[in-house]
Amino acid sequence: KLSFPLTKLYVIDGSTRSAHSNAYMYGFWWNKRIVLYDTLLSQTTSDEDVVAVLGHELGHWKLNHTSFNLLITQVLLFSNFYLYGMVMNSDAMYASFGFADHGKPVVIGLFLFSMLLSPFDHCIGFAMNYLSRKFEYEADAFAKDLGYCDNLCSGLVSLQVSNLGDMNPDPLYSAYHNSHPTLLERLRALRPSGKKSQ
């Protein structure tokens, strides 16, 4: 239906290690694979719920979330290398931390640089979580547009209960620490009026 370039479909035997359930896809452009946990298949109430969860994952593909995340990660990585290259031989940095008389060891330089970058890392982490949550809402909306709103809601509830997730954490804590919206936030976004979809 979506012309998804699927090459393989895997089922992970996750139940031998944990009751946690999940689904994800990986691969680039022409070589995609979908992975389902066996716990996902056993914990959802119907096959349509599984299809709805897959619709969510396919939303990430159709909306290019994976490629966009990869691009951002590469930009951040090379930015870190570039910034470290600017300060790795900085006398002021080593002197400020009391290493003026110890030369400029690379390991010490990396450690000091990571300390200097730590406040920015928190800001970047918050921004990345915000973006990730936005992508989750968009993928949910994609599955809804495919006609799987009710099944996605049912599947999300089943997975949340089975995974013993916090149903309603503190909003500020969740916004800073969680890469996914809470269950209630996702259900409200899928059904803004609180009424059942058709």
Structural notes for this entry:
There is one protein chain. The protein has eight helices and three strands. It has a three-stranded mixed β-sheet. A hairpin with a 2-residue loop joins strand 2 and strand 3. Helix 2 packs across helix 5 and helix 2 packs across helix 6.
Tell me briefly what this model is:
With 198 residues, this protein is mainly α. It is 61% helix and 10% strand.
Key features?
single chain, 198 residues, mainly alpha, 3-stranded mixed β-sheet, 3 strands, elongated
Present the secondary structure layout:
Blueprint: E1 6-12, E2 23-28, E3 31-37, H1 38-43, H2 47-62, H3 65-87, H4 91-96, H5 106-145, H6 149-162, H7 171-177, H8 183-190
Parallel strand pairs: 1-3
Antiparallel strand pairs: 2-3
Helix pairs in contact: 2-5, 2-6, 6-8
